[in-house]
């Protein structure tokens, strides 16, 4: 997943190391990476949840999952 300023060709707004030691800019790169990792985990959880629900529907339909 590429967001503005985080991928190749993005702006330097979140580039680590730009701005010196006292600048808050170096932390942005880490924060963008953490947010990207969180987004990927949520998307994976959504896909896995969808597979679980489809399996439950299939199980109810073929009788391998009891309705009660």
Descriptive report:
The protein contains 1 helix and no strands. The protein has one helix at 25-62. It has one domain.
List the helices and strands and how they pair.
Elements: H1 25-62
List keywords for this structure.
rod-shaped, mainly alpha, 68 residues
Could you provide a short overview of the structure?
By secondary structure, the chain is an all-alpha fold.
- The total tally of domains equals 1
* Terminal residue distance: 41 Å
In percent, how much strand structure appears in the residues?
Answer: under 5%
Which sheet architecture does the biggest sheet show?
none
Helix and strand succession?
H
Instruction: Note the overall shape.
Output: rod-shaped
> Rg to the nearest angstrom?
21 Å
The proportion of residues forming helix, as a percent range, comes to 55-70%
Helix/strand class:
mainly alpha
Number of DSSP strand runs: 0
What's the number of helices?
Answer: 1
On the 0 to 100 scale, the average pLDDT is 80
